[in-house]
Amino acid sequence: MGILIDILIGIVAAMHLYFLYFEMFAWTTKGRKVFRNFPAELFEPTKSMAANQGLYNGFLAAGLIWSYFIDDNLWSDNIALFFLGCVVVAGIYGAWTVTKKIFFIQALPALGAIILILFF
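Below the sequence we write its predicted structure tokens.
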């Protein structure tokens, strides 16, 4: 089960690194493709706000990646649980305020990893 947990954590971390990339460095290009319902004329004025969001996504990825480098299993699990919990909260909030699709893309994989850590 440990390998499956590590894979899920890795997927969640990789997704947040991708979010970091397009929010910080490709908001006006890739962001338009990802957020099709967002008015095109607002991408340039919101570039710095998106970059700030990308930075936060990078912190989430860093925390999840950090959990791989902790030798103590209990401590590693606790760090992973904290950052996965942050991802779930962000995903639920995004689903509530933006689009329900965010729950399935962001929160559900993190929630799956949390369940596996806690019960297996």
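The helical segments are 2-24, 30-34, 47-68, 73-97, 101-119.
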